[in-house]
Each structure stands twice: as C-alpha cells, then as structure tokens.
Amino acid sequence: MPIELSAGLLPHRNAPRIAKLAEELGYARLWVYDSPALYGDVWITLARAAEATQRIGLGTGVMVPHLRHVLVTASALANIEELAPGRMTLTVGTGFTARMTFGQRPLPWKEVADYVRALRGLLRGETVAYEGTKLRMMHPEETAPARPIEVPILIGANGPKGLAVARELGDGVMSVGVPQPGFAHSAMLQTGTVLRDGEDFTTPRVIDALGPTAAAGYHAVYESAGAAVDDLPNGKAWREEIERFPEDERHLHVHEGHFVRLSELDRRHVSLAIAGGGLVGTPEQIREKVAALEAGGCTEIFYAPIGDIETELRAMAEVLLG
Known about the structure:
The protein is α/β, with parallel strands linked by helices and 322 residues long. The protein has two domains: 4-191 and 278-320, Luciferase-like domain (TIM Barrel, Alpha-Beta Barrel), CATH 3.20.20.30; 204-275. It has twelve helices and twelve strands. The strands form three sheets. It has an eight-stranded parallel barrel with strand order 1-2-3-4-7-8-9-12, surrounded by five helices. Strands 5-6 form a two-stranded antiparallel sheet. A two-stranded parallel ribbon has the order 10-11. Strand 5 (128-130) and strand 6 (133-135) form a beta hairpin. Helix 1 (15-25) packs across helix 2 and helix 3 (70-83) crosses helix 5. It is globular, with a radius of gyration of 20 Å. The protein starts with a strand and ends with a helix.
C-alpha cells in the first residue's frame, strides 16, 4: 500500500472549513492537536470536523492522559464513533506541549500504559479497575453505540520505552524525527512548505510557514536539555532572554505561539535553518524525502501545515497527491 498523506488540524474557528478542504484534496486523515493551553478543544473540533466531512479519517495527534479521565475519553470516543462510524483513530502519548504548557514534565510511560489498558477494556464493554476503583461504560443505547466500540489506538513514541508500549498495546505508532519501522501503521509528523521559484529562508511567506517549526526545536531542546539550546544558532541569546522571566512562569514564554506563529522573542533569535529537514524544498526534493521516509518504514505522513494553512495544504497535495 502506498504511503498515505494526512494533515494536522488546529482546533480553532475555521476547523470545519479546513477539514472539508483536506477531504476534497484527498488527504487520508485529520490529526487534531490536543494542547488546551494553546488551542481549542480537541473533541469539539473532532465533532465539528466529523459533521463537515463524509470520508476523511479523524484522529487525535496526540492525546495526553492527564487532560481527561479515562472514562471521559471513552465517552468522547463513543460520541465521535456515532458521528463518523469507523473513521476515528486515537493516538496517546506522554505529552510534550500539552504537559510543558502546564509547567509539567511528560508523564511516565507506566501511566500511559495503564490508561490505554483501561480504555481498551471500557470500549469492549468490560468493567475495569483503574485508580483504585471499578469503572464501566454504563451508557444506554440512547446515549452511545453498543459495546464493543472498535477504535484503533496508536502510541506517540520515539524512544525504547514508548516503542515497547506501542508494540504491547498499540495498533501502531506515531513518531517525530525518524520513521519507526516494524509497525503496520507507522505515522510520522512532518512540517514543511513547497518552495516557489526565488524563495528562500528570508522570504516572508517561508518565515510564516517554517518559523514556528524552527522555534519548536528551540523549545524542545531547552525543555529537555536546558543550556544545550546554546548549540543552536543564537541559542544562547534566546536562552538568556527566556531566563529573565521568573522560573514559575518561564514555560508561558517558552511556548508562546507554539506551532502557530513566532513570538516576538522567538522572532528575535530563532534561525529557520534548523527547520529545513522536514518537507521543505522543490516538488522533486519533497517527493525524494517522502520516498526515503517510506523506505525507512513510515506508512503515513502526518503533515502539519503552518502559516496560510489552506494554501499550504493545497501546495503539498499538488506535490504528493496530484
């Protein structure tokens, strides 16, 4: 089966229109972001996208257990299954943005594994033990589909612990950075833009499309390795400005505008050069990159458009789906 092209969907007011466009362009799935400190609600957005479309797959990219009790997630999945039968895929992870924007660290993998086990049991209609009590989906037929409810579950993972959870409990994996081979469903997050004649990293449109990706690289390195961000272009100046803020509110400034637009602080320091490794280049260069990802074991590209989202979706679809 050829590699699939899916799209990220930002939870915001124009989500239904963008969902409909992605379906018309031939994208396989919409992955909706789940970072409530930055974006709208993932489940409301999924419901709105479901009602605006007919065929395109829907999914969370990536849901983090600390945001919702497992029974709340099971109930939400049941609702989406009624709205869009057979179209939903859930991806669960330890959380980067969704945790860091709360001033918290990623969850332990054991918590994610326990959550997924309980969720699978609930969707099967079982009574499950979770957090010291017994739970069951008690929904009558008027309020939810009959159990079992079949929803594929991917695990958002890159390292050995997460990949072990994916192999044990998941129907596949979602990764960042490099493909994860050996899974029937191996989705991979990619940002990027199709460069037009004469464009480079100084072109305003390209800055809008790639700047937030580059900034996210600074955010990730700083959150995981502190002063290691100094090794990035202008990284030391970026860190020194961030560290002028009180420690208990620093995360609010690190992640301002994350994956949407450059904050003024990021704009002063961030270099777009570190964003060039994704789906960035001429049409032929992008096709070559996708072929390499497919050869590495990726089965689905999760393309996250930034900037003028509708224009970016059209341009990437023309290159990879046209």
